[in-house]
Amino acid sequence: MSKSNKIMIEAKGLSKFYGPFVAIENISFAIPEGQIVAFLGPNGAGKSTTMKILTGYLAASEGSAAIAGLDIRSNRLEAAKHLGYLPENGPLYDNMTPLELLTFFGEARGLDATTIRKRLDAVVGQCALDLVLEKPIDKLSRGYKQRVGLAQALLHDPSVLIMDEPTAGLDPNQIREFRNNIKELGKSKTIMISTHILQEVEAIADYVLFVNSGKLVFGGTPKELGEKGSLEQPFYRLTNHGKPEGVIAKEEAAA
Fold first, then answer.
1. Distance from C-alpha of 47 to C-alpha of 66, rounded to nearest angstrom
2. Which residues of the chain have pLDDT under 70?
3. What is the structure's pLDDT at 4?
4. pLDDT in tens, 128-158
């Protein structure tokens, strides 16, 4: 359930074209404050493209995007103050330690020394980085690198958190820890997570946006999406919408 009706992440008619190739087309949605939203779809569906536009890393061919009511194109710096972004395989400076990296990003964001110290204490605790804080990042496990990335995204205490495939490459224990982190963060932030993993949706999401072939094909709760408590059949149906119903029915019967 949302904590208010204030819209924190909004897309209006987003499209992105690369010549004749359509990456996404006419995607619109509005995410209110306090929701954890799963951006679901198969690989290549347009999830990352949409997120890059929402975060200002990519310009839309058509449409507009806003974070906390601020247009991401015309108010990029102000919108960025409200936004934490964890891209898939986000770049980290491997020769730095987590402490050096986070201090660097804090300074780059214009935080004063007192605020940096305060926020470092907060994110190190949130992301359980105490044991590796002064260890070179290139010596860290995939799970710890992901925690460093999350800490970087949280450093300026944003109200909106956008993450692209945040559990990719993690082992089951690391995934559980990461999901627990997200559920805890969802108590105070609006969160959007792209994934193609159904268990992610069932474990953490309040709301689901489903994209396929560059188009938004569903928006609703996991319960509204699910059939008999499972998301597997709806996923299959929505990603095979181009097939005749009879073909899908036969394939489902044979499964």
1. 17
2. 1-4, 227-230, 241-255
3. 66
4. 899 999 999 999 998 899 899 999 999 999 9
Buried b (16+ CB within 10 A) or exposed e, 199-224: ebbbbbbbbbbbbbbbbbbbbeebee
**Which residue is listed with tokens 């994209």?**
211
Q: Where are the beta strands (DSSP E) in 55-195?
A: 62-67, 70-71, 83-86, 160-164, 190-195
Walk across the sheet containing 215-220 and list its strands. 83-86, 160-164, 190-195, 36-40, 207-212, 215-220
- The residues spanned by each domain of the chain are 1-82+158-226, 92-157
Count CA atoms within 13 Å of residue 199 on its CB side: 7
CATH number of the 1-82+158-226 domain: 3.40.50.300
- Give CA–CA dist 213/45, Å, rounded: 5
**Dist. CA 54–CA 58, nearest whole Å:** 8
Backbone angles phi, psi at 38, to 5 degrees: -95, 125
The pLDDT score that the predictor gives to residue 198 is 80
What pTM did the predictor assign? 0.85
> Of 38, 58, 55, whose CA–CA distance to 194 is shortest?
38
Among the listed residues 108, 161, 165, the one whose alpha carbon sits nearest the alpha carbon of residue 142:
165
